[in-house]
Amino acid sequence: MKVVVAVEDAAALVAGLRREGVDVIAELPEDAPLLAAADGLRGAEAEGVLRALAEADALILAVSRRTMSPTVVALCDRAGTRVVPLVVDAAGERLAAACGLEAPLERHIEPWRIADALSAAPVGAAPEAPERPRVIVVWGAAGAPGRSTVATELAVELARGGRHVALVDADTHAPSLALTLGLADEGPGFAAACRQAELGGLDASELERIATPLGRSGVDVLTGINRPSRWPELSERRVAAALAACREWADYTVVDVASSLERDEEIVSDLDGPRRNAAALAALRAADLVVAVAAADPVGIARFLRGHSDLRATVGATPIAVVANRLRPGTLGIDARGQVRRTLDRFAGIRDVWFLPQDPRSADAAILAGRPIAEVAPKSPLVLGLRRFAGEAVVPTPAAEAPERTPGRGIRRSRGAGSARAAAAHRRSDARALG
What we know:
single chain, alpha/beta, Rossmann fold, 3 domains, 8-stranded mixed beta sheet, 5-stranded parallel beta sheet, 19 helices, 15 strands, about 15% strand, globular, disordered C terminus
C-alpha cells in the first residue's frame, strides 16, 4: 500500500505507518502544493504532487477549509487515489461529507487504526456498479431546470430498440409527469407501488397492472401523487423497496425526483416521523447513475453549484452525469458552452458536461399534444442532444462504433458518406438552437 501524507507535523504518523508496513512515498504540507496542483497551476511542487498522487493508492489528508475543496477531491478521482480524511472537530466532518468523502477518522488516531482503514474497503463505499445502469435518477437544483423533460425524453430514448423502460414520478413537491404526458393522475401510480412494496406484494404482474403505458414507446409510467399533501405515502423504506422491484421488472428505470435534499426537519420533528424529502434521498441512494440537470444560465448554474455538494454527499461514489439544459447565447454571450464548462470545472471540478439546446417550439408542441417531444418532433435539436447523451453516458456504443470527438466540431465518424451527413446535420441543429 503506497500512500501520500498531507498532514502538518506528520513525523510520528509517518513513522507509525511505516512500522505497520505502509509505504509512505511522499509527505506534503497541508496547503500550498496540493491546492496549487488541484487548481491546475504549474510548478515544481505541483508537478511533484501530481506524480506522487499518480503513484499512490491513497492520500491521507487533514481536513480543513485551507486544504479541502471539491477540486482536491476531483484531482484525486482523476488520479485514481483514495482520500482518507482526518478531522479534529464536527466542522471537519461536515466538510468531508460535503465533498463526498468516506467516514473520516480522528486526527490523532493511532497509526495502526489508519493502516487497518487503508487495508479495508472504504467506509460507506457503494457496491460495484453493474455494466449498465438499471436505475437512473434525474435530479436538478431548484428553479425548474427541466428535470421532468429530461427524464421523459431519456426514458423514450432508452426504450428505442425494444427495451422495457419504467418512468417513475417520485417528486414529492411538484409532480408533473402525468400532466405533461396527458395521463390520468387519479390512477394508483407510484404511491400504490410503494404501498404494495411495503406489504411485500409488489411483483412484475402488479407493476404491469399499476403502470400506465406511454403510447407505443415501450415506456411504462408510474405517475406521481396528484396532491402534494400526500407526500407521507412516499416514505424512504417504501420508495427503496418499490425501486428494487422496478429494477427486476424493467431493463431501465428512470426516476424524476424533487430538487430539495434538505434534512433540517430531523432537528425539529420526531425522529421516527415521515420526511418530505425522503423519496428523493432514497431514490438517489438506490441509483446506479444520477443525471444532474443544470439550467444553462447564470442563475441556474449558481443554484446547481450550491446543490452539487449536497448531491455528492448523498450519493457517495455513484456516478453523476451533468447535463446543461436550455443552452442559448442570450444569457451567456459568446462561447456559451465554454463558459459553462469553465465555471463547472473551476468551482466543482466537473470536467464532463453534456449540453441540450433550448427548443421552445418543440417543447410547446409536445405540451399541447400531451406527448413526448421525441414523438411530436423527432428531429428536434433537443431530441438529438438527448440521443447523443444517452448513447455516450448511459448506453455507450461499442468501441468499434464509437464516434470521434473533435473539439468545436461536434461528432465526426471515421468512415462513410452517411456519417458525414450525420455530422453536418448535428452542426446545423446546434447552429439553429444557438441562434
